Amino acid sequence: MVVTRRSTIGIAVVLALALGGERPGVEAQSASPIKVGFASAMTGPSAITGEGVKWAAQMLADEYNAKGGIMGRKIEISFGDNAGTPGEAVSAVRKLADVDRVDVIIGQTHSGACLGALPVVKELQVPMVIEACSNPKIRELIGKPVNEWAFRVNPDDVMLANQFAKHMSQSTKSVSIFAQNDDFGRGAAAAYDVAFKKYGIRLVSTEFFDRGQPDYRPVLTRVKRANPEAVLLVMLASEGSVFMRQFREIGLTQKLFARGSMATVEFLHQVRDNPSIADGLVEATYWTPALDPAWEKQWLDRWKVPVRVHGSLAAIAWRYAVAPAIEQAIKKTGRADRKSIRDALEELDVANTPVGRIRFDDTHQAFINMLLVEIRGGQLKILEKIAIQP
Amino acid sequence: MSDLLEQLLHGLTLGSLYAMVATGLALMFGVVRLINFAHGEFYMLGGYAFWYAYAELGLPYPVAGLAAAAAMGVFGLAYERGVIRTILARTWHVQLIATLATSITLTNLAILVFGTQPKEVPTTLSSTIVDLGGVRMAWQRPLVLVAAVIIFAGLEWFVTRAKLGKAMRAMSQNREACAVVGVDVQRVALATFGLSAALAGGAAALVSPLFNIFPDVGALLTLKAFAAVIVGGFGYVKGAIAAAFLIGLAESLAAGYVSYAYKDAIAFVFMVAVLLVRPQGLFGRRIGI
Amino acid sequence: MMRALRFTIATAFLIAVPWIVAATVPGQQRYVLHVLIFTALYGALALSYDLVVGHVGSLSLAHPAFFGIGAYTAALLATEARWPFAAALPAGIAMAGLVALAVGVPMFRLTEHSFAMGTLGFALVAQIVATNWVDFTRGPLCVTGIPKPQLGSLRIATLPGFYWTGLAAVGLVGLLYHGLTTFRLGRAFHAVRDNETLASAASIDPLKYRMLAFVIGGAVAGGVGTLYVSYVGVLCPGELAVSLSVNLLVMLFLGGVGSLRGVLVGSVAFTALPEILRMAPTWRMVIYGLLLLIIVIRAPDGFEGVIRRRSRA
Questions:
Q1: Three-state DSSP class for C97?
Q2: C142 touches chain A (CB under 8 A)
Q3: C-beta atoms of A87 and C285 within 8 A
Q4: pLDDT tens digit string along B198-242?
Q5: Cα-flanking dihedrals φ and ψ of residue C2, to 5°?
Q6: Which of A261, A244, A276, A294 minimizes the C-alpha distance to A373?
Q7: Can you tell me the distance from the alpha carbon of B195 to that of B31, in angstroms, rounded to the nearest whole number?
Q8: Mean of pLDDT over chain A
Q9: A109 and chain C: CB distance < 8 Å anywhere?
Q10: Distance from the first to the final alpha carbon of chain A
Q11: Which residues, 6 or more positions from C197, have their beta carbon under 8 angstroms from its beta carbon?
């Protein structure tokens, strides 16, 4: 190439731009925060779950921002209140997307809210990672080609029932189910009804109770009469502690199985006056504090109460799905906007997380490990880690 | 057979709870003709007061229980002075909505102050089991029943022998006449509220060890207590007590033998049925508490 | 003349809202329209409730049940029996109205507090049934996949489309409300509300007029329920919660019970204000409770009363 004055100037200009100048777009991008929306039931009868999610989100934002954010970009969190209902979920998603301008949503905790939110995240093209909704119908409503903007990390009882029923069948032949009268309880009861038949367990009875109804004696008396070998409790710690006291008061001694938040530090804290009240209880879950003791300690230090399950589930969705996806998105495209986060979630494959492998299949469902956690001597013990089959 | 006995005994515990709460409601309606939709929140706040006294301050159980009742008594006085006095002369719509508004405010304040996690306050008595004829139960349950009976007896003595109590009864029968003969109507109204609230607080101290305390606990309780007041005949305390036990037993039996999921429906259907068939209540129209 | 002109301008403005919103807040227009849709539906619901509470003076707590019955009727017919919207909507209205008729006859034999408690009992039982009759209503697993309204070749699936539907709904309900509460019928309602004995003496049958308001109010609530589920697409038993009565009472008393403008103002304030103020949700409920308390004691005519006193003074 002939070195002329023009070409010298030209080369000098290009070099100057390449080395000294920064394209304004990139500079603004690397400075602007990544906005994450957390939607849950902040009011209404299930407000306790929203509180857990909120506390977890605050802790996570502080934790990540202390490290400088993700790829140098800070995390900014916003909250949406779905009150546990589909109508409010629509409002919450729209607010997070259009007013708070979040890049990704984690939520909605309750199935009714999830169902209401799904069409809206599709319309607004905001990626949403579901952390706890358990209605099995959700699997038909997310993923390709139905709704490419929604993902789910947690398994539902249809996915867990086979393995858990198999485990139960090793020690019992007849079971009564006690389930809370909401989407979680009803979905579980239906799933285990089917699974028990497969493994030769006789379903003696199924009882539903409304949350916030602390009087279980009448139905416990019925169970005493029906006399199953074991009971399957589908309930959260806040009801479970009262339930167990009355269970022992009546003098029942059935083998205890659970789905919900029974084998948790929350529960053990509630029954700390009698920590062995539920000894021998085996719960099928997908998270327990032993998987992340640092998180448990951080929670206790900050909030002065035992770590909450719903907060921890939101943390799982963030830590092992959303945050890695954001990182991937920035690495690959330089941006952490809605579409690039969505694409990154689709391609995500994080192998060795404490909850198992995080990879979304075509239906945008992840298959994290199922854990069997036992309460023994007032302590929690992981009995088994079982991979859930797609 | 012990099964039935068990359900009946359990129904009595439930009935005692409903009766204590319903008594307060019936008193208020009887003496000042006011429906207090926030009454369940007296129970809820009483529960938190009890928790604070027993679990946080470590007071012995009887002291904590009385403290809770006393605290609620004071709260009831303040409530009467602050809110009720301004609406006593207004229409029942205003009263209903004002007390409903109070209920919303108190419930949500409780969420803000105490959080959504329920508080559990097991006591020695609620953790020690007794076996009565094949039926196992915590000592706390007979305590609830016995305490309720004592409270009702005490109340009866109060309205027949004590000056203030007699004034309450007189006011419930004929308010105008009372004013004419010089009864301090305002003072009696004030005392009624204090007493009602204290009753609710005491009920909470007795029953909370068996269940738990959370901000929304008053909602369903208010409705059941209302059902009892209606079934017993508006403003007739003995009727409310009897009706409350009836509802407690019916609920227990229905939950045990018919359907646990629908048990609340049974209580409300019962209430509506009585309203329609015998609107003056099961025991006829009685004047006065 | 001036009135008609003002009315026309107001209507034109309201119809043009989607464009106005797009022009003024382009980034948030979808959210604003969504809030307006809920506001319109709530407004229609509040008006239907005010017919019963404000104009015949019956403090019914059964309204959530009628809303829910309309919603479930339409939702189940649309998803199970593939009924088109044009048929599901009248079905929802009719079902709610029929139940109101069936419930009203016994309820109106009760007076005052008993009526309130009786209607409350009915509302509670309705929610319990919706939650537990899972085979029929799907219970807490919710009715899903409720289709968007299709009227012939017109499909209402966009936010402006739903906004205009909501606007039409509140407009129609407003016209109905106005027609029912003015002229002779309105005077009869008010006679029953203000002095029942005198009304009977003047051969105005209180029961007949109470039932009329109750049934129409209930039927309209059912219609709003139908529109609501067509918009949200999912229906869960939680939507029948008794707390809806509380929300409606706040709207009515905030704005001015018994007044068209008042109730509409109350609905807008209740629905739109929190979005604007961005209060933490629990605090919002505390403030509503206190507001309701203060207003019902100090200014029971609500905002409308304040306006009227101002204009008189």
A1: helix
A2: yes
A3: no
A4: 999 999 999 999 988 999 899 888 888 988 988 888 778 999 999
A5: -60, -40
A6: A261
A7: 12
A8: 89
A9: no
A10: 61
A11: none
Measure in Å the smallest separation between the Cα of B54 and chain A Cα atoms: 14
pLDDT above 90 (res C202): no
Name the token pair of B159.
Answer: 């309205």
Q: Where residue A5 falls among pLDDT bands split at 50, 70, 90?
A: very low
Strand partners of residue A150: A128
Q: Alpha carbon of C56 to those of A291, B91, C213, C221: distances in Å?
A: 62, 15, 7, 17
Res C295: pLDDT: 86
Closest Cα partner for C37 from C65, C50, C51, C18?
C18
Report how far residue B32's alpha carbon sits from residue B79's, in angstroms, rounded to the nearest whole number. 14
For B133-187, the pLDDT digits (tens) are 778 889 999 999 999 999 999 999 999 999 999 999 998 888 888 888 888 888 9
Q: Which residues pair with A233 in a beta bridge?
A: A178, A258
DSSP string, C144-185: --PPPPEETTEE--SHHHHHHHHHHHHHHHHHHHHHHHSHHH
Which pLDDT tens digit goes with each residue over A247-264?
999 889 999 999 999 999
pLDDT tens, B52-96? 999 999 999 999 999 999 999 999 999 999 989 888 888 887 888
- Cβ–Cβ < 8 Å for C119, C244: no
pLDDT of the residue at B1: 61
* A242 Cα to chain B: minimum distance (Å): 6
B122 in helix, strand or coil?
coil
Q: Any CB–CB contact under 8 A between C158 and chain A?
A: no
B54 in contact with A, Cβ within 8 Å = no
Closest CB from C28, C236, C282 relative to A85: C236
Q: What is the DSSP letter of C56?
A: S
Picking from C97, C122, C108, the residue whose alpha carbon sits closest to that of residue C220 is C97
pLDDT surpasses 60 at B46: yes
Residue contact C121–B227, C-beta within 8 A: yes
User: Alpha carbon of C206 to those of C46, C193, C202, C203, C211: distances in Å?
Assistant: 23, 9, 10, 9, 8
Q: How far apart are CA A49 and CA B164, in angstroms?
A: 48
List CB contacts (< 8 A) between C288 and chain B.
Answer: 104
Long-range contacts of A87-91 (CB under 8 A, 24+ apart): A87/A116, A87/C38, A87/C228, A87/C232, A87/C239, A88/A113, A88/A116, A89/A39, A89/A113, A89/A114, A89/A115, A89/A116, A89/A117, A89/A120, A90/A116, A90/A117, A90/A120, A90/C34, A90/C232, A91/C34, A91/C35, A91/C38
Contacts of A3 (CB under 8 A, 6+ apart): none
SS (HEC) of chain A: CCCCHHHHHHHHHHHHHHHCCCCHHHHHHHHCCEEEEEEECCCCCCHHHHHHHHHHHHHHHHHHHHCCCECCECEEEEEEECCCCHHHHHHHHHHHHHHCCCCEEEECCCHHHHHHHHHHHHHHCCCEEECCCCCCCHHHHCECCCECCEEECCCCHHHHHHHHHHHHHCCCCEEEEEEECCHHHHHHHHHHHHHHHHCCCEEEEEEEECCCCCCCHHHHHHHHHHCCCEEEEEECHHHHHHHHHHHHHHCCCCEEEEEECCCCHHHHHHCCCCCCCCCCCEEEECCCHHHCHHHHHHHHHHHCCCCCHHHHHHHHHHHHHHHHHHHHHHHHHCCCCHHHHHHHHHHCCEEEECCEEECECCCCEECCCEEEEEEECCEEEEEEEECCCC
**Which of A367-376, B112-121, B199-208 is predicted with the least confidence, judged by mean pLDDT?**
B112-121
Q: What is the pLDDT of residue A16?
A: 41
Nearest CA in chain B to A252: B136
B237 near B278, Cβ under 8 Å? no
